[in-house]
Fold each of these.
Amino acid sequence: MSAYNFAYLDEQTKRMIRRAILKGLAIPGYQVPFASREMPMPYGWGTGGVQVTASVLMPEDTLKVIDQGADDTTNAVSIRRFFERTAGVAVTEATVEASVIQTRHRIPEEPLQAGQILVYQVPIPEPLRFLEPSEVETRKMHSLEEYGLMHVKLYEDISQHGAIATAYAYPVKVEGRYVMDPSPIPKFDNPKLEMEAIQLFGAGREQRIYAIPPFTQVVSLDFDDYPFAPTKADHACDLCGAEDSYLDELIVDDAGGRMFMCSDTDYCLTRRKAGHIGAQGVPYEEASV
Amino acid sequence: MTPLLQVEKVSKYYGRRIGCADVSFDLYPGEVMGIVGESGSGKSTLLSCLAGHLVPDSGAVRFDTRADGLRDTVTMSEPERRMLGRTDWAFVHQHARDGLRMNVSAGGNVGERLMAVNARHYGEIRDKAIDWLGRVEISDDRIDDRPTAFSGGMQQRLQIARNLVTGPRLVFMDEPTGGLDVSVQARLLDLMRGLVREMNLSAIIVTHDLAVVRLLADRLMVMKDGHMVETGLTDQVLDDPQHAYTQLLVSSVLQV
């Protein structure tokens, strides 16, 4: 434990990252460059999110880590264990108990509260990247608010698929100014981006941090005649019966059998504990015996 | 009558080498001006300075803006200049792939400038794109094809449609027919002549092909080593060249 500074990163680095976070909060949606450090995990595994989490973590914090909504996947378990060992903070799987939540590709179903911080892992922070390969040019487009190109992508979607087919990493405009990539969350989660909690986005390989302060206006881009629509599998959770949560589809046998279940494991479990049962579920007490 | 574009002593140096020096002229609404000269004579440098792609070292390029009348585009702020670049100006590149997004469908290419000026209705954008593809003789069933699937002539026509869709007042063209075979060239020239007359466009066309300027341009400017050596009505310059270099240029044209 004493071999590491609290939360792994040294204090100078944390200060540098906190400055970037503060700047990001002051200019919602703006990508702030920062000197991303080597972390003891490969790029693409959440190095950006981990650095942001390390910089905002306090000894009295309670940390929750989710990967695609789940608390029990490899990525989530390793990052949670990493901070248990290097920071000694309390950890939890319950969304309501956590003060800092690091997430990969989901926003928890339970609405977040003031005082909570949601940290996103971001692979590609530049929403215009695949439309305009030059970073010099995209930065200029951001600074001059030239966002026509973003709609070209949506136009292409409609002309090819008959609807806006972008299902994740759906571009948003933050506070009427910056177009932002909300990280690869499903577009089902986009309406939740307007929330009470602080949202921080860290991209380690790309060396960018950006943020959405609480109660900030976040609008998903669309056309007048093809308005934005959040989508999910047209089904209820087979374990807890929830009809309002984002679902994972699981193939369960070789005969094409499948089941749908909440991607947010904590949400599902909380509902099952409260007595909700889905089509293929069993009561919580029986399952846990 | 106010000129649409007033160019005053524009000079651009690349270190100690001259790009173009002391070029001045006025361009009036509806007028087409040709700039001819050999390779390296400064034609493209001059065009880039006029279109705001390069910053001239000295001189002024005044454009008759819709809101404030004549404004110097060299000293105006970058957002204003880029706004002009996607509304009142159009730039047709020699190579269509410089002016098109090759991984975006034809319709998306035409629609981009509309969306850049805040068109947010898919149906209207698409209707306009189909209309413009028709005007440049691209059938509407090709609207969802990418430019990579188009021939060179079609790519060039698509580039023209993409540029003219927002109704610009001034078009810059850099060798618009370069690299196309003669029959395709002829159709393209015919098309451009029609559009220029129909939309009352002003245009500046840089080329080394004298036949192109003979067909399209009202006025001609001949450049040599970065300097303007002769200027006048197209027919006058081509039929009765005064400067030795112009005489050489005119007499160098291969007769078929």
Amino acid sequence: MPPKSMPMSGRRAAYATAPARRFSPVTAKRLFVYFGRYRLLFAVVVFCILLSALAAVAGSLFLQILIDDYITPLLGQAHPNFAPLLKAILIMGGVYLIGIVSVFAYNRLMIIVSQGTLKHIRDDMFSLMQALPLRYFDTHTFGDVMSRYTNDTDALRQMISQSLPNCISSIVSIVAVFCAMLRLSWQLTIVVVAVAFLMIKVSGKITGKSGEYFFRQQNSLGKVNGYIEEMINGQREIKAFCHEDEAKKGFDLVNEELCQDGAKAHRYANILMPIMVNIGNLQYVLIAVVGGALAIHGISGLTLGVIASFLQLSKSFTMPVSQVAQQMNSVVMALAGAERIFQLMDEKPEADQGTVTLVNACLEGGELQETPEHTGLWAWKQTDENGVSRYRQLKGDVRLFNVDFSYDGKKTVLQDVSLFAKPGQKIAFVGATGAGKTTITNLINRFYDVNQGQITYDGIDIQHIRKSDLRHSLGVVLQDVNLFTGTVLDNIRYGRLDASDKECIAAAKTAGADSFITRLPQGYHTVLEGDGSGLSQGQRQLLSIARAAVADPPVLILDEATSSIDTRTEAIVQKGMDALMQGRTVFVIAHRLSTVRNAQAILVLEHGKIIERGEHQELLAQKGKYYQLYTGAFELE
Amino acid sequence: MIKQLSAFIGEYKKDVLLSPTFVILEVIMEVLIPYAMAYLIDFGIEPGDMNVIIKLGACLVVAALLSLLFGALAGCYAASGSAGYAKNLRKGLYYKIQDYSFYNIDKFSTGSLITRLTTDITNVQMAFMMIIRLGVRCPVMLVFALIMSFSISARLSLIFLLILPVLAGGLYLIIRKAHPIFESVFRTYDKLNNVVQENLRGIRVVKSFVREDYEKEKFRSISQRIYEQFSKAEKLLAFNGPLMQLCIYSAILLISWFGAVHIVAGNLTTGQLVSLISYAMQVLMSLMMLSLVFVMITISQASAERICEALNETPDITNPAEPQYTVANGDIDFENVGFSYAKDAGKLCLSHIDLHIRSGQTVGVIGGTGSSKSTLVQLIPRFYDVTQGAVKVGGVDVRDYDLQALRQQVAMVLQKNILFSGTVKDNLRWGDAGAGEEEMKEACVMAQADGFVGEFPGGYDYQIEQGGNNVSGGQRQRLCIARALLKKPKILILDDSTSAVDTKTEALIRQAFQSNLAGVTKIIIAQRVSSIMDADQIIVLDHGEINAIGNHQELLANNAIYQEVYYSQTKGGDDHAA
């Protein structure tokens, strides 16, 4: 579950239905850009397809030649010489062989093109997704996003690997047969072309319809995916509330919608072929009647033989035309998937105009110098337009100046918040739920950007710091813990990838997690699955603290980091935490008095404003809100 | 497997049967049409008989229209039949998953269940549609074309029989090799789904630790694996096309040669040779389509097996044969309970639990992190079954109750609170689907949620986002409490569910419970002693065993753990504590 982040905002619902739509031609174009990577290979593929198509065309012409030039002369001969016939058949065999080999070749090569393209699309989609702002994740159903990686790319797969070669070879046949027809009779060819035009028109209409529904189908599929994901994730609630029946009803609704859209899409797709084929049949009759009449009445010099051959050809012409039409179905289905994929890719990524970077530094003659090796000393590197770099030591001085913030532009969450944290200070946020405590920390690490005011880090506006470097300099323990599939060690190492096993274990000890980890079946190498479902909430928090400890950042943000840890364990953790917080700037949101008490500054928030600030004793003496909260019981939030 | 899967056709039987029926009619037309066409050439065009041309032309037009009608109907029924089938299958599987226990779900993983419900079912749907359309068409076509070609020349038609085994053998080999690869492809799909899901849910962690590149690498390796496995499988399938062509072309060449010989010998006319070859094309085309069907079946077979695997999973928590439907009261008894998630008596995480709670009591549970507090209470609504001993509610073993009836009486506010996308009202109605506005408000007042809900734009109609993303942690917890109260249970369990609620508010909630829920058994797991010190009994858990039971005074006097916890929390605060 994503951590709390957006107190009270009125953004759009997670299940916003996408309107039915047609595809922009841009989608197809963008797909072709992906093929562009395989330009050379693709050229070879097209060449092979051409070869195989030509072999097929040669095959269809072969029979007539065989009969006219080889069989008929043999008729009536007393001692027919079969040698030329055999030779012709062998030559044809050779042509066919070339065709077969090229089919095999392009089939194999096409796999590289299609699977490679899919892989690139998937990878790009994931990379771009990682760069999206949190707002995107707050407002989109996870299962729907997941569907783009599986169901939508799957829809693409079929098109690339099958339809493309099919279309190309069909077009070759069309061209070849067209030439042959022209040679026989241009008048009848006009009839054929007119009918072909009609076929294209009809198929355009139908595929337009099926495309629309395929797009809906992919959207519904995404919705079903989203529903399932949310429900399986909330399975505990479902069971606790005997909500199975409602969960089923809700599912039936989205499932029915998917069924309707799918049925309609496939209905349009399925009737296309019979329509095409039979338009072809009608055309056959038309040509037979018209041609027959013309020939019998001796108009236009058509012989009956020519018409007979032409009729054969016309069949070979409409066949590939309807093939192409049929393939358009898979194309529109694929485009429906592609459209959704590109939708995700086109989301606006997190803005990052920061140029100030974080570098390792060392002191040389009192001057900060950049060094490649890890020194434990860090510096902000600012480079001006002349290419001159200035360095400023990383200390952990964080200040907010008159910050206003709203998640949705309507409801103000923070109002005129100013505060400063000097290096090494501990700042505590206190206040009722929804007062905006977590929001402040979300602004410091730029999950969201301030609407008004400014936040500085070591005197530099955080907007000018490269986001990744800013976040590297901040260690965060979030309220809700997310673990990843992998070993316990992997999960701790998430804080700093180059941390050694020893360092990770040391961090676990600091966080008080060592004792429970060593009791796990494989200790630190126990594989956690399903967001660490086998661990208790408190244990997960301990791991999360260990993760931050191993990251070793100058500034720590602890958002109710110990809320689910019992006080005895916390007492153990506390020692480690104190060591961890030593010399660091710490922002802490906690309801444990023990954590808040010794803060240099306690900020009491109410409705997005700081209403009281000071040290523990001062605030008590003020007898204000803090005093009220404090004397309510042992602890405060 | 086929029997099991075909049971889901259900009310779409009509569509599923009508479709192939129309396919057969369409095929008959398709076979007749070229026959008439050849006739048209031989007896109309060649002799130049306009009468025949017109007559046959009219017949052909009718035939084409019929063929169009049949084809379209077949297509429509196939579409609705297969979409309906997929719907039923998806529904069946989803319903089945609702019966899963957590143990079952963890076994499959969420990502895997999602793949099975969408991607796998889509595969089966596509294969199903192909089967009802082509699975009938191809054999019928094949038989017709064979009959026709045999009637033209039995001897030449023997060539087909020669080629068939080559085709069948080749196809069999390809399919047998490709099947296991497809199985592993879908397993990798599960992993892909899991990685994407973890990333979506943990995006804040990813961003905080600037782990985007690391995650991309992780994703890339899985994406690469899909690429490799799919390529491997498709490389095998790539043999299919050339194999078919090899057979088609050989047949045509053989027929041409022997046909020529026959023609010269006067046993065959050229017209017959032309139709023979066109039938040969038809035979081989239908074989080719059939092979495509087989390929599709190969892909979907892997999917179908995965679906069946999930369908056949036995939920490890089920209703008893003769369930008890009424829960007498809120008594809870643990009788020498031992429990292990792995169902292994050697690795118990709860042991020797003996507990007796009377209806209406308030019970506090306190204990260290990982002391199995949550595990203990999850046995009461039978989220898991005990490994040893018995848990009784209202004097009856929980395993003897109807699951719904039991859980209806046990309301649980979980540690990890989840709200669902929908309005505040929708979420509250989880507790009681028929709850009116009054009742909802009442529950929210008790849970101290009414105040902030009122401040939401739209109040009770305010939209909650997935996971309850747009309300703060404390608000979420209070809404979850209200939701549980609406159930009007006999037993109410709060699993550390006020951790993000400030102390004052929490005290108000407790007060409301005291005065309004006197008859309800209340079990409260808490970290703060203040949350439970007024309880009738307090259970101190330590490493899965009961360390002590007593009220606040008793424990404070006798129990070392309790004393430690109490003093650690009051230390420094006692001079101000109320």
